[in-house]
Design goal:
With 433 residues, this protein is mostly beta strands. It contains 3 helices and 29 strands. The chain has helices at residues 29-33, 74-77, 114-118; strands spanning 134-136, 138-144, 151-155, 162-167, 171-176, 182-187, 194-198, 201-206, 209-214, 220-223, 230-236, 239-244, 249-255, 260-267, 274-280, 283-288, 293-297, 303-307, 314-320, 323-328, 332-338, 344-351, 356-363, 369-375, 379-384, 390-395, 400-405, 409-414, 419-424. The protein is globular.
């Protein structure tokens, strides 16, 4: 089976603010001090700021390109919260998720029209099903075609005007962000399992190998040691971690003297492929095809806890605020929080109708935290955090296996090999793409 990896994690953001927020327009001084424990809190957990006007950056062309702002996040641009970072806090159990009422109403019309996708729906506007690729809070800027198989990795190096996408077709494509055109195709000699951009380095997970490219100097290194496909990559604590098909996790450290990545550690314990990794609060979290999540101490490299609440493959893990989030083919998203003893327990479970593939967190135009969840029914759901209020959906011809967030925009890659570029819309009632 093929899985995507290398997910980023979130820094502290504070509770989500909903569009129709009727709380006092005052900033909570407990929140400013970092110790507000009220939920819901009657005051704002963000600084007051002017409303955002428009739907896209003034630097973004109106053609097929997708140029980004100089700032790397909406939050940074507006003086708000940090970007989605690598580390997440840990704390006691919080009632933010346990008080949620999941009142999702399933509407049969909330499905993509298969005839419209094929270009032959005869019902037109009277069709019972959706004739668009998205609903809600985002619209499609452009689509990038070229890959012949599943897009398994997407990376946007900081400060770069190039987007990199990897596929099971054994190629990495380089896209010009200004024109939206393919600027190069690199044959990597094996199926791409995942991609990660960290500083000047681009890492590519391949069978039995991790390739490292320095996008500034064009230096190329090969990191040996993996046995089988490399499904997931993440960086943290000055180490690069790789989740491997044989169930092991390998780590390398960069040697500035030799300009090489040297083996640093090996984590053993999973009984099947490690398909997702995330680093937060000096912990490494790993999700596996053995249906478990393991928590590793990065100081002594020991396994602290094994989480077994999922009943199928754990496809994606990430950290938000003091929580760990995980999704699985068992159709659930689980929210984990630390008890007084330090162990993680499930504090909330969100259930979907279909198995879940990828989690990705980012900010919308108002710096609100949003969770994107890819399902194996060829859709992506967008949820506000911590309420899990649905913000919109994205549809595709095949499963979306890669999601990568950028400043004001984000990218999805599906099973057909197509990459799509999406922008957040300031007007929630805007016409879908």
């Amino acid at each position: 089976m093929d899985y995507d990896g290398g997910k980023r994690v979130f820094n502290r953001l504070g509770p989500a603010q909903h569009q129709n927020d009727n709380r006092n327009q005052k900033v909570c001084y407990h929140w400013r001090a970092g110790n507000c424990n009220r939920f819901p809190c009657p005051f704002l957990h963000r600084e007051l700021s002017a409303p955002v006007n428009g739907t896209a950056s003034s630097k973004r062309p109106y053609g097929s390109g997708f140029a980004m702002d100089d700032e790397r996040s909406t939050g940074a641009r507006r003086g708000g919260s940090n970007t989605w970072g690598r580390g997440g806090g840990r704390g006691g159990i919080n009632n933010e998720f346990s008080k949620i009422n999941n009142n999702k109403n399933i509407n049969k019309k909330d499905k993509l029209c298969n005839f419209w996708v094929k270009g032959n729906c005869s019902f037109g506007d009277k069709c019972r099903y959706i004739h668009s690729w998205s609903t809600g809070c985002f619209g499609m800027l452009t689509h990038l075609e070229g890959h012949q198989k599943i897009v398994s990795g997407i990376a946007l190096p900081a400060g770069s005007d190039k987007l990199y996408t990897g596929s099971k077709d054994e190629t990495v494509r380089v896209w010009d962000c200004q024109s939206g055109q393919c600027a190069g195709v690199i044959n990597v000699g094996g199926e791409v399992g995942c991609m990660l951009s960290e500083g000047p380095w681009m890492f590519i997970g391949l069978p039995n190998l991790v390739k490292a490219w320095n996008v500034q100097t064009n230096a190329e290194l090969s990191l040996s040691g993996p046995v089988g496909q490399v499904y997931s990559l993440v960086a943290g604590s000055d180490l690069l971690f790789a989740g491997i098909q044989d169930g092991n996790i390998l780590a390398w450290k960069y040697n500035t003297v030799t300009n090489c990545f040297e083996p640093a550690a090996s984590f053993q314990g999973h009984t099947a492929a490690v398909v997702t990794l995330v680093v937060g609060a000096n912990r490494l979290y790993s999700g596996s095809m053995d249906s478990s999540i393991r928590v590793w101490n990065l100081e002594n490299l020991q396994c602290l806890q094994t989480l077994t609440d999922h009943t199928s493959v754990v496809m994606s893990v990430l950290c938000w605020d003091q929580f760990l989030l995980s999704c699985s083919l068992d159709k659930t998203i689980k929210v984990w929080a630390a008890t007084d003893s330090g162990n993680l327990e499930v504090t909330y479970t969100h259930t979907e109708e279909h198995g879940l593939l990828v989690l990705c967190g980012m900010h919308d135009l108002e710096s609100k935290p949003v969770l994107l969840c890819s399902c194996n029914d060829n859709s992506v759901h967008a949820y506000d955090l911590p309420s899990f209020t649905e913000r919109g959906k994205i549809f595709a011809k095949e499963e979306i296996r890669s999601i990568h967030g950028g400043p004001n925009i984000f990218f999805t890659g599906d099973g057909t090999g197509e990459v799509r570029v999406w922008q957040w819309l300031a007007d929630q009632s805007a016409t879908p793409s």
